[in-house]
Amino acid sequence: MNKKYFLLLLLFLPAILFAQASKQKKADRYYENFAYTKAIEEYKDLLEKEYNQAYNQQQLANSYYKLRDPENAVKYYAMVVEQPNVSPEVYFNYAQMLRGVREYEASRRWLEKYQEAARNPKGVEQLLKSGDINVYKGLESFRVRPAGFNSQFSDFGSFENNGTIYFTSARGTADTKTKIYDWTGEPFLDIYKVTAGSNTVNPVSGDVNTVRHEGPVTLSADGNTMYFTRNNYLKRDGKKDDEGINHLKIYKASLVNGSWSNIEELPFSNNEYSVGHPSLSADGRTLYFVSEAPGGMGGSDIYKVSLENGIFGTPENLGAPVNTPGNEVFPFIAENGNFYFSSDGHKGYGLLDVFVVTTEAPGNVQNLGEPVNSSMDDFSFSVSGAENTKGFISSNRTGGQGNDDIYELNILAPLVLKGKVTDSINDKPIANATLRLLDQSNQQLAVLETDSVGNYQVEIARDKTYPLESKHIKYNTKMEEINTSSMDEKTELVHNIELSPINDVEYLAEINKIYFDFDKANIRPDAATELDKLVNLMKNEYPELVIEIGSHTDRRGSAAYNRRLAERRAQATRDYLVKNGIAAERIVTYKGYGEEQPEVDCTTCNEEQHQLNRRSIFKVVKME
Signal sequence span per UniProt (predicted)? Predict the structure, then answer.
């Protein structure tokens, strides 16, 4: 190399290193101040210049983690986990982000590695629990579509009250001085409203919105009292803790002449930790909220506090099974008593999922499943009114308009599966038939029995395929499938079932054997009673039934004599049926078999065994 150029390189190298070190400080300052969108750009520049790569890869991965961007986070965490002496927390973060891109098996492997490296930390057992996700057992179905009032910014936390939808948004059009929140690069959050059925959005009036974050929100049933989340900011006196963090608090506002005023901080808010996400019960006597208060079970827990005549009681942690060592957020209690919340500590499809604890199963936390949940953050579930047919969720799932978007829920009632079970030959209803409804794993969901006129009815979910088994002692068992796809406009599915009778006259007519006395061919009174049942079956139940008769003897006497005796018995049996109204052509064969086909195959038979062998039997030739 030319000495002149080599000397220039040596002169410029300290300046280059100084510039990169300065950029590193700038990037870290952004990160420490939660300005993750700005930090990302600086870290990317540093990586392009191959400066401090291991450190900047991890900072970039962590920044995407904070922004809930799993696709980019996974890309950089994959590099970080290959570095030596990596913190176990990196494994956990990587596992969480892998769930966000539906890499569930990989996520499980890194959770196991985290569990081993961190020496059995809290919060992993639930996520590593074997078996499938505990999906909601309810039969209603959810239809999800983007709300028409979403913006290109974050919109979430919809809650309907008396025909007005309140929600939180970073669209920056509220009547406050617009400031940019460095964490997301979007304006600070404010509370907005829109009339149900409209897309015309306005900020709430009054003193609720400020230059800081506001939302989400809940209202009293009469719509005159609002509880909302806001940064620790009241009368321009925003306060930070010792680490420079301005926490969230819950405030109360009153509606006075159409404007929200009289802002008050709730007594259990605190300067040292966040309290937010208020949700008021329908009767107004319990306020649910989220807090990171010391002594909880994890990152954030759900609490409840009583409210009587404007006076709050002592907050109570909901504990297990709702709260976990992970994060539980956005509680909502419906008018029917079902309790909904979001969590990343229960086993789910991705990051935050929506879960429910029903009044019927208070100890069972159930994942609401897809399409309510996705691989991304799904939260802020709410339903409107006592009928629970409409509602909202919020999500940053792919395909949205902004960062977080609001989705409208159409909650469809279960389908009513109903029908009649009939005989396939005579179309008569079959009472007391047994129907077993199964799932796709052939696990039994319900057992039904038809009523006296063959009817059955049960509620089932939409968008599923159910194996259905129908059976009765007199009929052949039937297996078929019920498909409930594409039935949103229906409230019931009529499915009639035909069962074919078994080819057993004795079962169908419920008759006993036709027995004869020793060396006799006459029809005894007990035999006549049984033959009358057969006559009724052939006349009234199956008028097309065609049979054959076979008669038999015991082994006393010669084989030739017994064959002739059996033929007389077959003739007597046939004549009785014809005499009582059965057309002769419906008895195609009446044959004597003598002693050749004994019921009891014995050499030295007792009298009871001899009697069992002296009989006439019937076979079905055709039913229709």
Answer: 1-19
